[in-house]
Amino acid sequence: MCICVARTEMGFGSRSLCCFLVAVSVIMIACICSADELAGHVNKSTSTMKWKDKQRKCNVFEGQWVYDDSYPLYNSSACPYIRKEFDCLKYGRPDHRYLHYKWQPKECDLPRFDGEDFLRRFKGKKIMFIGDSVSLNHWQSLICLLHAAVPLSNIIQETNSSISTFTFQDYEVSVMLYHSLYLVDIEMEQIGRVLKLDSLKNGKTWKQVDVLIFNTWLWWYRRGISQPWDYIQEGDKIYKDMDRMVAFRKGLMTWANWVDSNVNPKSTRVFFQGISPSHYNGREWNEPGVTNCSKESEPISGETYPSGLPPAAIVVEEVLKGISKPVYLLDITTLSQLRKDAHPSSYNGFKGMDCTHWCIAGLPDTWNQLLYAALISL
Ligand SMILES: *[C@@H]1O[C@H](CO)[C@@H](O)[C@H](O)[C@H]1NC(C)=O
Ligand SMILES: *[C@@H]1O[C@H](CO)[C@@H](O)[C@H](O)[C@H]1NC(C)=O
Ligand SMILES: *[C@@H]1O[C@H](CO)[C@@H](O)[C@H](O)[C@H]1NC(C)=O
Ligand SMILES: *[C@@H]1O[C@H](CO)[C@@H](O)[C@H](O)[C@H]1NC(C)=O
């Protein structure tokens, strides 16, 4: 079941410190497909038009965090869907400033998230997050944001082997999560579990979806007991292991080829979520000796993260550049790096130290605000 798999994954996350989850970033590949076509009937309010004009000149991923009392965007205690891993308030997080930060792009303002508008635009559509537990985190935030906008609407929940779906019945909008650690396949064979760098069979299900938001990174450097495969296969060759960054690039290339040969840009919008950073290494933000996020209650001020972008950023940038279909990089890396204060640390339902995932309400709401901004402006 999806939930159990995700829980196991999270357990590993807390134990094996996902120090490798550093970050990625960069480029926004211009998207030429028409959102109107996708969204069906679109009610273009004037504020949307203004936003579109401004957005053309503005990189929304460059900016800083500012304290704003009108945040958070919803009362997380009134969202009944938050898993115990992310519900920081419920598990007693004493400092609340982390809830009140707003992402302020340098050259424009983000439109405020309007859940009802979102649901109206996407009537009859399916939105799917595909990836590891960071996708679960992102998906849960979107469900809370939408639920807060229409708290009395009917919501149906369904879960089967790898897909969890929340359907906002009155709007016929499905918000789905497809659990996949690497996007490419892991198969059980006689020799053991094989990570197949050039095989992507799950794509059949993805093709029917209107908005796809992909993410993978967290698991590529896992070793030992938390490594969920025994061999890596590429073509006819079987390896016991290989340089993980090389494997990551090959896996992403397979995904990129899948996008190019399978996605119809007229009916499906594709996002790549980039890489969500963890905070276990204080040297990255000039606090050597700090080994977790337990004492962090403030974001890093300013626009840059002291240690800069990680090498994986370059890999993502290069792979996305090679895709000919429109793919939008939801470039959350730097803005998330700045939020060392936004992880659950020990304020979660399993009491482990978690500086990999994010509190809900919290940072993933901004990811969804950026997703919404992209969806209404493209
Ligand atoms: C567009 O939205 C506005 C405000 O939400 C509403 O008053 C108007 O009737 C809508 N127009 C159409 C064509 O749906
Ligand atoms: C948040 O929701 C909870 C549960 O519905 C409620 O008890 C609480 O008063 C709400 N808080 C605010 C600030 O609205
Ligand atoms: C799982 O759910 C999805 C979406 O509701 C559906 O398309 C798919 O056929 C289901 N798979 C199985 C095995 O039931
Ligand atoms: C977290 O860091 C604090 C000091 O910064 C340390 O005392 C504590 O042992 C660490 N906890 C874990 C679980 O690593």
Automatic annotation (TrEMBL):
Gene Ontology CC entries for this record: Golgi apparatus; membrane
GO molecular function: O-acetyltransferase activity
Domain Trichome birefringence-like C-terminal: residue ranges: 110-373
Name of the protein described by the UniProt record: Uncharacterized protein
Keywords on record: Membrane, Signal, Signal-anchor, Transmembrane, Transmembrane helix
Topological category with respect to the lipid bilayer: Single-pass membrane protein
Subcellular location: Membrane
Residue ranges of every copy of the Trichome birefringence-like N-terminal domain listed in the record: 57-109
